[in-house]
Amino acid sequence: MPDQLADVRLEEPCPSNLPPIFPAEGMPKRHKRILFVTSEFTDFVKAGGLGDVSAALPRALLAEHDIRVLLPGYPQVLQSAVACKVVGHLPGMAALPACDIGELRLADGLVVYALICPELYDRHGTPYGDDQGQEWPDNHIRFARLSLAAADIAAGRSELSWCPDLLHVNDWPAALAPAYMAWREQATPSVLTIHNLGYQGSCPLGCCAELGLPDTAGLPESMEFYGKLSFLKAGISHASHITTVSETYAREITGEKFGCGMHGVLTQRRRRGQLSGITHGIDGSWTPNLDPHLVERFDATHLAGKRRNAEHVERQFGLLPGRGPLFAVVSRLVHQKGIDLTLAIADEMIAAGGRLVVIGRGEPELEQAMKRLAENYPGRVGVHIGFDETEARRIFAASDFLLMPSRYEPCGLSQMYAQRFGSLPIARHTGGLADTIVDGVTGLLFRDETPESYFDAISRALNIYRYPDLLDAMRRKAMKSPLRWEDAARPYTSLYQRLLQQAPARAFR
């Protein structure tokens, strides 16, 4: 074990002057302290669905827990309208610089801690790369710093007057935190949520020294992965429990096809009862009779507002009114999302009377292919390369069917957004899509990763569209089907309670 880690092995991981975690008999029980660690938070910065979950799940848990969010101090965080007060400091280690901790108290009571380290986080672009989509070459330093900060806060080294009972870390950018804690023999239990196993946070084995890792980090049973270090494998190997974002995906990742090379270790964790799937919910802003983004609001009883939103989308995207259905793609334009499958069946879909509206950005070749499709079908296909929240919501409200032919989809949120707004998702039977869509009731599912199987589902949709009563009945079922976060969060509370009960007692308790 390196000297840096040996120096901070603690018998009392949190300050002894904090209130006891398990109060004496007869004393009122207090909420458990949970530190939720993430690289995205939609209030400030978002690259994908992780940002939405990181903003919604902690809020849903506020009633049951003293939950706080830790994320990097990006410019979007520190320059937001929410005041940021420096409340703590963390020492550096190896190549990880010292940093301050800023506290932001949001209007709804949620507390956010931001790591203030300009040399790592004061950059324009996404959380992971520049404006041209190139990843930052020091991402291993940037997110090891985030992970070490979480471990240090759990160890009481942050100067904060608050210390978590449990860490909940998300995806590879925070996944090194459970490993840092294990190497320092900290007793704080941890949950790792895998939102997408395909992103693993790899760096060369030679980075051990600059990240302050022990020699054992380079072993296969720790974080070595095909000759590199994997942040995600470190979390899988060392977290107390692993969750992923749907029960089907939790099963899929223990197999070779979806396991991304990690199916062996994930199978071991599942056999020990340490891997489970918890399906996402959606927040209350996705309510069509209240949403201020929509041109006209509506509900499951009065669906006329969908027509007004459709008229707006037709004008915005230069579509001609038609008798056939309006299909939509609201997605990153990447291979995983099956965009090439949609391109493959587009000619037949349009020939059968369908129209298509697309919003999103992603891989340049798929962006260009979508632009060419719009050029080939003026008035029938409209494409916007980019993303706008208001337009996306209006497209969900306007469309009859949402296309999600994903090759894999850990959970997916878009299908639930579409359902809430009365747009029936057409999706592959995989991951969270299989768990949130009832085929023929709240959407349509197809099995095979082929244009033929996909177009069979499109043909079913075209047939359903010919029967307005059936279409409206399915819309009403779909609008009632997605879970609210308040319901989806309950399994997390049960998991936290179980892990805290199993955690070894600490000396200060």
TrEMBL record:
- Report the NCBIfam families cross-referenced here: glgA (TIGR02095), PRK00654.1-2 (NF001899), PRK00654.1-5 (NF001901)
Q: Which key words tag this protein in UniProt?
A: Glycogen biosynthesis, Glycosyltransferase, Transferase
Q: What's its top-level EC category?
A: transferase
Q: Which HAMAP family match?
A: Glycogen_synth
Q: What is its EC number?
A: 2.4.1.21
Per the record, the similarity remark reads: Belongs to the glycosyltransferase 1 family. Bacterial/plant glycogen synthase subfamily.
Q: Which gene is transcribed and translated to give this protein?
A: glgA
Name of the protein: Glycogen synthase
- Which superkingdom does the taxonomy of this entry point to? Bacteria
Residues bound to ADP-alpha-D-glucose are K46
Spell out the reaction equation it catalyses: [(1->4)-alpha-D-glucosyl](n) + ADP-alpha-D-glucose = [(1->4)-alpha-D-glucosyl](n+1) + ADP + H(+)
Entry GO MF terms: alpha-1,4-glucan glucosyltransferase (ADP-glucose donor) activity
Q: Please name the InterPro entries in this protein's record.
A: Glyco_trans_1, GS/SS, Starch_synth_cat_dom
Describe the function of this protein: Synthesizes alpha-1,4-glucan chains using ADP-glucose.
Which pathway does it serve?
A: Glycan biosynthesis; glycogen biosynthesis
> Would the keyword Ribonucleoprotein turn up in this protein's UniProt record?
no
Q: Which residue intervals define the domain Starch synthase catalytic in the entry?
A: 33-267
Task: Give start and end of each Glycosyl transferase family domain.
Answer: 315-476
State if Transferase is listed as a keyword.
Answer: yes
